[in-house]
Amino acid sequence: MPHPAVSAFTCPHCRTRSQQILLGPVRGSLGRTYNDNDIPNWLATKCFTCHNVALFHGPTLRFPAARVGPTPTQDMPANIKAIYEEAQEVAAVSPRSAAALLRVALETMVNELVSGSEKLFQKIGKLRALGVDQEIIDYMDLIRGFGNDGAHAGEVNLEDDPKTVADLFEILQIIVADAITRKKKKQALLGRFSQGWHQGREERDAAAQAKADQLGSKD
User: Fold this and answer.
1) Which of 146, 181, 182, 175 is nearest to 161 (CA)?
2) What average pLDDT score do residues 75-88 get?
3) Does residue 213 belong to any structural domain of this protein?
4) CA angle, 164 then 168 then 174, to 5°
5) Which of 8, 81, 154, 207 is the most interior residue, by most CB within 10 Å?
6) Helices then strands (H, E): number in the chain?
7) According to the model, what pLDDT value does residue 208 have?
8) Which parts of the sequence belong to the DUF4145 domain (predicted)?
């Protein structure tokens, strides 16, 4: 998280982890007459990469508005990315609202993976039946639960524990990586080989299944 006492952090302007130059106290006037005094508890830093200035009141970033969570991956679909970034913009002010938006982002992605009119809860169950890893299912249920209530089983108050919301952003990134990035990598690797590699596998798999069914019927 950006902090004026830290020499390097992720710049809230360019989103690059970069060295930050402490410019010192903000100067100006607290009254109607400008007198160029230090304004108490206000500090400014300058990004070594993009040269933009950030303003802090005490340890809290005030300008630009702090964004919570990692930058969206390149593989995140545009419609999901838009919701994700909106959640980033409001997270520092309202963690509960950010959690609700992350749930919307998850539901948008799940609706593209599973057709039908069922609710998110049922569709996540379908994904498990289709073979999605249980850990990913657990992550989906976490975002669904926090997004529904702004809390999980009454144990965590998001307004009192913003770190939990930051973790939810990372969890959604993991889900995207599993559902989209890994699939794209697999398709790209398979596409590099000639199409003959899969010839005959349908017959092979069908024969193996028939044999397994036959053995099962004997039991």
Assistant:
1) 146
2) 93
3) no
4) 140
5) 81
6) 7, 5
7) 85
8) 85-169
Residue 181 and residue 101 share a domain:
yes
Report the run of H or E that residue 8 belongs to, with start and end. strand 8-10
Contact 70, 117 (CB under 8 A): no
56 lies in the same domain as 142 = no
181 with 111, same domain? Answer: yes
Cβ(39)–Cβ(72) below 8 Å: no
Beta bridge partners of 60: 57
> Does residue 72 form part of some domain?
no
Q: Quick check: is 218 in a domain?
A: no
Report the C-alpha gap between 176 and 106 in whole angstroms: 9
Q: Tokens in use for 145?
A: 């639960």
**pLDDT band with cut points at 50, 70 and 90 for residue 144:** very high
Instruction: Look at the chain and report how many structural domains it folds into.
Output: 2
> Residue 57 belongs to what domain range?
8-63
What's the CA gap between 3 and 60, in Å, rounded? 7
**What does the block give as tokens for 134?**
């249980």
> Tens of pLDDT along 30-62?
444 444 555 678 889 999 999 999 998 888 888
Helix (H, G, I), strand (E, B) or coil at 160: coil
Taking the C-alpha atoms of residue 184 and residue 190, their distance in angstroms, rounded to an integer, is 10
